[in-house]
Design goal:
346 residues, mainly beta, Immunoglobulin-like
Length: 346
């Protein structure tokens, strides 16, 4: 009887039909910690039960949470998988036992995706081989596929400050959340609506961190993950939380002033103009010919020191798409525009 072991996989999270999570190592470790499959000394999972019958195959594995087997969890095999709609095609459902182990018996040979329901929620974690692709598990006739152990996490870590959807005026802001049982440390990420990330997987030992925000009006989204002392992720926020900074001069979202979005204009004497950022010392413009099959860049992150740009040449008739990013003296992105377009008429 052949036995297969799949070690370093990943989990992606879907809720309903939507993709919510970037992929994360199944052992809960992030790449900045230098972890690898060789870090674990745990014995490999093996199967010693009955062989499949009738030209069918078996699938065997174990689901763990916080270092121990997770009982009574639904596990699903499906023949078709979409990152946006989840499982489809033929499905096989089973439940983990008291040790967190599961067994699919006498499954039709083929390629399958594997998912696990997140405890009592409506969310499913899919074993993944990439950000938007499920791992392909091949079930062969007369064989038992041993997938191995996967560590899953709960979705009940609760941020408290600032409140979701709240408005703040302070630029030095504490982010706080409820301390999670058995958490040894946390990782926090914070992103402005436009601009470089403030925090990316920042490790903290307490359930709080104080951050310095951009000195402009801006929306932010943030999330937290909890890890145990074995560096295994045990929980995260169910969604990214958001808040808005108000009462400042300027904004991280810059308005385009001309040409107006969707405008039809002549190709000579074109001026690109946008709202000035009080934090910017330079701007970079990206613009391409959208009618060109190669999407040739007309402005390839052209850098200017003013909030406008004048073309010396006449642009040929076509639809052009463009956006602007703002940078401070340190080279950090502190704002940007939406993507706009205009058409040069013949």
């Amino acid at each position: 009887m052949k036995k297969y072991l799949f070690g370093f996989l990943a989990l992606i999270l879907l809720s309903g039909c939507g993709f919510l999570e970037e992929d994360a190592p199944v052992d809960g470790r992030s790449s900045d910690e230098g972890s690898s499959e060789s870090d674990t000394t745990e014995d490999e999972l093996t199967y010693d039960g009955e062989d499949p019958t009738g030209g069918k195959g078996n699938v065997f594995g174990e689901i763990r949470w916080n270092g121990t087997g997770a009982p009574d969890l639904e596990v699903l095999l499906c023949a078709d998988f979409s990152s946006f709609s989840g499982c489809g095609g033929e499905e096989f459902l089973t439940t983990t036992d008291a040790e967190g182990q599961y067994l699919f018996e006498d499954v039709e040979p083929g390629i399958y995706a594997l998912s696990v329901r997140v405890f009592d929620s409506d969310d499913w974690l899919y074993i993944s081989s990439g950000i938007l692709s499920s791992a392909d598990f091949e079930v062969e006739a007369g064989e038992t596929l041993v997938i191995g152990r996967q560590n899953i996490f709960k979705l009940d870590l609760n941020p408290t400050t600032p409140g979701n959807g709240g408005k703040v005026t302070d630029l030095e802001l504490p982010l706080e959340w409820e301390a999670y049982p058995d958490a040894d440390y946390y990782k926090v990420s914070l992103y402005p609506e436009e601009g470089d990330a403030i925090l990316v997987d920042k490790r903290v030992d307490e359930a709080t961190i104080t951050v310095d925000l951009l000195p402009v009006n801006c929306g932010y989204r943030w999330s937290v993950e909890a890890f145990n002392s074995d560096r295994i992720k045990i929980a995260e926020t169910a969604e990214q939380f958001d808040f808005v900074v108000a009462g400042q001069d300027g904004s991280c979202v810059l308005l385009i002033e001309e040409p107006a979005d969707g405008a039809e204009i002549r190709g000579d004497g074109i001026v690109l103009d946008w709202e000035d950022s009080p934090q910017a010392t330079s701007y970079k413009i990206l613009m391409w010919n959208d009618d060109d099959p190669d999407r040739t860049n007309v402005l390839d992150f052209e850098e200017v020191n003013e909030s406008s740009y004048r073309f010396e040449q006449t642009l040929e008739p076509a639809r052009y798409v463009w956006s602007v990013s703002a940078y401070n003296a340190s080279g950090d992105k502190v704002g940007g525009t939406d993507i706009f377009d205009f058409t040069v008429r013949p």
